[in-house]
Design brief:
By secondary structure, this protein is an alpha/beta fold. It is built from 7 helices and 14 strands. It has one domain: Metallo-beta-lactamase, Chain A. About 25% of the residues lie in helices and about 25% in strands.
Length: about 300
Amino acid sequence: MQAISIGHAGILIRTQGITIACDPWFEPAFFGSWFVFPRNDQLALDIMHDVCNPDFLYISHLHGDHFDASFLAQHMNKNTTVLLPDFPTREMEREFNKLGFRNFVRTIRTKEHVIAPNITIAIHTETSITDGPGGDSALMVSDGEARLVNQNDCRTNDLTSLLDHGPVDLHWLQFSGAIWYPMVYEMDEAKKKQLCVEKVESQFARATRYVEAIHATTVVPSAGPPCFLDPALFGLNMITGDEVSIFPDQTEFQRRLSDEGRLNAATTIPGTTFTVLGGGVTVEQPMSGEDITRIFTHKAEYLAK
């Protein structure tokens, strides 16, 4: 199995001659305020070809940094088969229909479905008022030799349910903030800063509990943070750590896991490729380690560019 980061929560899965594109987000979301970090507009042509022409398409939920309607409408092959989570409403299917998609696999919550020879998927759903229409979901993919869990933003209440399908090789999960709280509220700045600190801590603690529960071979921090390029919002990018912001990047989460003795969190940028073979995971980066490090150590310069 091969899994390639395509930015934010996006994954291109290649296995047994089958491709699954997950949460491809490329156009700025939420009225042009959120951008993918690091940038994902320079992916290799073969990767983009497979992203736009997958055998299967999985969108975890309808938030704009996951369901990129503009990209799906303009670039996604409408003949692809959409893997639909078992949400309590048909909202997602209706949104896909508006864009011209007609081929669907309607899954049943937590149930394993064989979608191709040797390829099994299961979609776990959670419903919360914070997730918008329907809810959020997590995807498990197995090819009989490797297993990937794409948890993205899904805050599953049953920490071990995703392990019911067997041991996990790759665990992709959110660790950073994905809302406007508390930055957009009018309050004392010191109080707002304290709320940000508390929110970051709760995010890290929750993600760490998932890491401990899933106990995957490799943890892939993903689904955030976005970056903010509008001058009025630029201060929300967490660069020095002193910002009134809930958007730490993956280096901070890796440091947290390292401090707890967990050294299996991979550095991930768009184009990072994970290959699972014989129970081991190898990582291939699209650029030098020095260039990747510079994205995070010189973040202000990177964002300005």
